[in-house]
Amino acid sequence: MNKKLFLALMITSLPLLILISLGVGTLTTVNINTLFKVLLGLSLTKSEKAVITRRLVRTLAAMIVGFGLSYSGLSLQYILRNPLAEPYIIGLASGAALGVLTTYLIGLAHPLYVFISAIIGALAVFLIVLSLTTILGFNPPSIIIAGIAVTYSISSVNIFLIIKLLSKVKGAFYWLFGSVAYVLDYQLIYSSIPVIACCLWLLLRSRELTTLVLGDEVARALGVNVSRIRAEVIVCSAISTAAVVALAGPVGFIGLAAPWIARLTIGTDFRKLLPISVLTGSIMCIAADVIIRVSSPIMEVPLTAITSFMGAPILIYLLMKRLGWSGA
Amino acid sequence: MKCVVDVRNVKVVLNGKVILNDVSFKAEPGEIFTIVGPNGAGKTTLLKALAGIIRITSGTIKVCGYDLVSKGVSSLIGYAPASITIDPWCKVIDALIAARYGISNTFLPTTEDYEEAYRVSELLGITHLLNRYVGSLSSGEGKLVLIASALVRKPKVLLLDEPLAFLDVRNQALIMKLLRNLSREGLTIVTTSHELHLVAMYSDKVLLLNKGRVVTVGKPSEVLRRDLLETVYNTKLIDVEKANQRILIPTAKD
Amino acid sequence: MRARISILGIIAILVSILIIISSFLSYYVISLSTRYNELRSSLNKEVSDIKSSISNALDDLSSLLTKLNTTLSSLAKNVTSLRTETLKIHDIYQEIQELKVKLKELNESLRERATLEDLRELMVKVDRLESMLSNAATISDIDKIRSAIDEIREDVSKLSSLMEFPAEVIDASGEVVVIPSKPHRIVSLLPSVTEILFAIGANEQVVGVDEYSNYPPEVVKAVEEGRIVNIGSGWYPNIEKILSLSPDLIIGVDSVVSHHTLKEIFSREGIPLILLPDKTLNDVITSIVIVGKATGHMDEAAKLAQELRSEISNLRSKVMEYVSTHGKPRVALIVWLNPVWVVGNNTWLNDLITLAGGINAFINVSGWVSINPEALIEASPDIIIVTHTGINSSNALKMLKEFVGDAYKQIPALRHGEVYCIGGHYLDALIRPGPRVVQALKILIAIINPEVLGLKPGEVPEDVNPDTFKMPP
Fold first, then answer.
1. Mean pLDDT value across residues C239-252
2. Bridge partner residues of C369 (DSSP)
3. Does residue B240 sit within a domain?
């Protein structure tokens, strides 16, 4: 596909998608006409204002989720040299789940506490993974193994907690699949700040990040402090993913699919890949939320149900391309 | 600027094992300096120490008069490892652009970056590979990409680990000719090699390394003597003239 | 190793970042809570101001009304000779004029939409009364006047009930929820809440219920007819759907986290959301009172609460008396048969069992627990109650015997076949913390200690369904 065409398409579809998202929902009376009223500065009825505000919070939350997950996934794929790396590989989703389930267990299940416990849980488990790497070595295969091992161990604790809490845990169960339906405005602000800050940091370091493709040794010969860059990227990914998971729960597959769509269309230069995959991720997430709201106007379906659909075709395409290598 | 690689009494200890012991030599600009020796002698470690990848335990290495740990030295050096470590899910052109780190420090790649990449790929005959994923290349093609990534920086010092490995005879001839040309332009080139039959073709000086110590340094004819080599490598070698087999090797001469 | 030190450095940096972030957050939270407290106290002050002005107006009105009452009753006494009473009627006429003026003033000072309408209606009725008086000629006319006066009295009492607003309630989160005027578009998020609303007479004010609200039957009929809208799941509610009903009051419960989130979201739109407490038996009584105050049915709610309270304490004392001489049987409550899930302590059902005079055989575990056969043998219950829907008691008995194997003889409940199944409406009453809690309690007592209710053991059928006790649905 022509690169410039793809880029233009992406950039114009984001604001368009936001507008669509604001105009679509259960209450069909609040639609494009209402949007025109807003644009023309006319006043809205109380309920119209409420609905539009709610949709705006949801849309922005979906955007931040797609934003944070896609650049986390991209950078992790870079430093771990693994095309299947994605943000939850370092234990963040299971840690956040642990934090949330614990608040339900203690009975402190208020949205603010759930939010904070998700962040603390995610980062605590991430620290466990990091300390494991000091024993196993801070290189890609060890990081992946440490991440997977810790994720599965924490997940088994989570399963135990879920079974134990079965009568109370209905709400937490829903959280485990990720949704932007119950995002509060202050949570949106608290989450956006680290997500955007870490992205800017990675943008500043992207020159060094690009050299990692040449291999640890060559990069070191070029004067890049490889372990430091790796540590910075992991920490930035962790903070951003923790913020996203605290906001909307563990939404799946965006971290894997968005970087890959960008890569297959725009090439492999990190400096170009970062903004494009971020754009792709936001668009995917907002689109998924719109699809959910349109197809299920009464029942609130979790986001992961749609985003995982988006992941499968990408992986299949990847596989097909890979199989083409042995011939090429 | 003329860049001498000045190595004095270098000792490298890794994980408690002494890899290099009291190694000293000088590689002059305009000279192709090749390090040979048995497997495990420490050739690659020595080259990595010169590139600044491995820290030396004692001794000094000076490149162009600067100490290795000082800033800016890495922009003078071009290093290519022995095996292909480039991310397979990366396009060749992007790898070449990425190797311009330190030389070109703008956020987005400049036209100069692309021009240099094209120039180097023409030199090495890999322009048809520029849009391919590194993972889809053969080992020889990958080696050429590695060498290209070292050259794209227009370095003053070229450190190539086994530059002739994986290559077919044509490409071996190409690389040998290229190295000759580059050294004539004033580059200091240090390589390692296992291809003893080719070393004499392109090198000016040879260093024989065994168990981390320098055995001898000198012209190829002085160092590559049958008695010396048989002792160091601990195996029987035959003179081509004496054998009744035809051996065809590529030539660096036009 | 250099790498190790830099990793430690990174960890140290990360920890300090965490500390900084958490101190930021706590500062923000503290400043938010102080601001919130200030807002709350100013709101309280405003509310008390309005209340005092309303009570003043009410005082004026009630004094006027007593005047009206006395004058009107003297009119009724002298009904036979109209002509002689013309002067008095003229006085009444004057006072009705004054009443009109006073009502007009009330109009202005109250500024409540609902009250305004009712006031206007009252004005219209008073006008009609006025015209009736001026046309009064016969005794039948005076009867009409009497009935008109009664109507006005009724309206005035309704008006005084409207003075109940704005109402303040303290809900389960400990916050004060202000309901500015009598709500007419109430959305209920859980079936237990719906039951409370209908039990205290607020049925006409409800516009939305969740998908599981099925009691009383009028609810189902109202949903079918479209007067009440089904908003979908009450556990994961769809915010837009609720907003589409333009609610003026939403009622949820404390234990559901999404309701807390909803409370914050709707408060930004100025729609009050009450979180009812729903953990213990007392919470049911409290919830009824809260809902009564919030919907303008304080009297009915207080009456219902009092009834429930007395019935519960009545039953409790009877049970206490009975078990002091007959002891408490061990009861196991099985909520699911495959795998076997039982109810432990710290649950609503456990409290009911204890109140019914039984000992929960699984009181040493907390919450809902899935058990293996040995645990059931060790618990050794005398009575097993099964609430797994769709299974009758003989099947349940068979399944449990298979579950435990030959050792079933060690379990008294299985040995004697004391396995009861509760289904249908009664099951709902059992698990919902709502006004049917007394029914639920009675059913449990009937099963566990039947003689308390005057039933003989064996008179209680093993399959308890809505026909069994012929209790009011």
1. 91
2. C342
3. no
